[in-house]
Write a structure and sequence with these properties.
Layout (H helix, E strand, L loop, with lengths): L4 E7 L3 E8 L4 E8 L6 H14 L6 E8 L2 E2 L4 E3 L9 E2 L1 H9 L2 E6 H12 L8 E6 L3 E7 L2 E2 L36 H10 L18 H10 L2 H25 L3 E6 H5 L3 H10 L11 E4 L7 H14 L1
Parallel strand pairs: 1-4, 4-8, 9-12, 12-13
Antiparallel strand pairs: 1-2, 2-3, 5-6, 6-7, 9-10, 10-11
Helix pairs in contact: 1-2, 3-9, 4-6, 5-6, 6-8
Bound molecules: zinc ion.
Length: about 325
């Protein structure tokens, strides 16, 4: 039987990436266009349609999965996404569905990542897991009994905004002490500014300007003690926090995805150590911390495609 194909689309603040994916997770075609180049969302829908029409993919795809910031699975709308030019409520799934005349589903990017791990990545062997996506912020996708948890409004799993520190760092959500202000690319840079350690003076990071998380990973690889302490601090905060999260859904696995998990070879192991030393005895040695296996593939496209395969099956 011929492989079923889906169109996976990842809408980001900077670029929109899309690709044709088969049921085994093979990406047959992919492309990237600048999101901000389209003042109206319907123009973006049109551009993708024309490209796939020219490449003769239109009749071959069975569904469209879209991952987007603030994407609501229930309504198919992007709702008030702060990093997109399109303001307010955008009925994106419906726009794709009426243009392509096939099933189109929208989900938020963290849930798309979880579905990607479940179908094609490092969670294929488990049915209770949580993905933690570590980028500019921290996202999470919760899977229980093989099903993504959406919640009553479609916004379950906003784990980046649980508050771990009373009166802690100010978060983009307007509150203080949220997990993502510590554990994310921006969080690492804030730790660099805030933490005073004896190793800081000698660190090459102290002599650099506009330091990014990537610089911290690089310096850690070069053996810089302060850079390594920053990563260890991040692992401590995440491990301790996941020990609390485990109480909620009793997962078999946490899958870590994103820059810090990808670039620091032992990050998952360090998180695991801090997780074990903070977790309830009923969970001890029962929960794995894994690194995503989708880092070298186009995880966002795979995840978005997975969200529609999930429904087609
Ligand atoms: Zn917050």
């Amino acid at each position: 039987m011929a492989q079923r194909l889906a169109l996976g689309i990842d809408i980001g603040g900077t670029n929109t990436e899309y690709g044709i994916v088969d049921q085994l997770g093979k990406v047959c075609y992919e492309n990237s266009i600048p999101t901000a180049g389209f003042l109206q969302p319907k123009d973006l829908v049109e551009a993708i349609y024309e490209d796939l029409k020219n490449r003769k993919f239109l009749k071959k795809i069975s569904g469209i999965g879209i991952g987007a910031p603030n994407g609501n699975h229930f309504t198919g709308n992007i709702e008030f996404a702060p990093n997109l030019l399109w303001k307010g409520v955008i009925p994106l799934a419906q726009m794709f569905e009426s243009k392509f005349e096939i099933l189109s589903r929208l989900t938020n990017d963290a849930n798309a990542a979880a579905l990607g791990e479940m179908l094609f990545g490092n969670a294929q062997d488990v049915s209770h897991f949580v993905t933690i996506t570590l980028g500019t912020g921290l996202g999470s996708g919760v899977v229980i009994d093989g099903k993504i948890v959406s919640g009553s409004n479609g916004f379950a799993g906003e784990y980046g905004h649980i508050r771990i520190q009373p009166d802690g760092r100010l978060c983009g959500c307007g509150r203080r002490g949220c997990l993502e202000t510590y554990v994310s690319a921006t969080g690492i840079v804030r730790s660099l500014e805030e933490l005073n350690r004896p190793s800081k003076k000698k660190s090459s990071l102290s002599r650099m300007t506009n330091v990014t998380a990537r610089d911290v990973f690089e310096q850690a690889r070069e053996g810089d003690s302060f850079a390594k302490e920053l990563i260890e601090y991040t692992a401590t905060v995440l491990g301790s926090s996941l020990a609390d999260f485990a109480c909620f859904s009793n997962p078999q696995v946490f899958v870590l995805f994103g820059g810090i998990a990808r670039n620091c070879s032992n990050f998952a192991e360090r998180v695991k150590i801090h997780f074990e030393s903070n977790c309830l005895s009923i969970f001890k040695d029962k929960i794995e911390i894994r690194t995503s296996t989708l880092h070298d593939k186009n995880a966002a496209i795979l995840g978005a495609a997975a969200s529609v395969f999930n429904e087609l099956n």
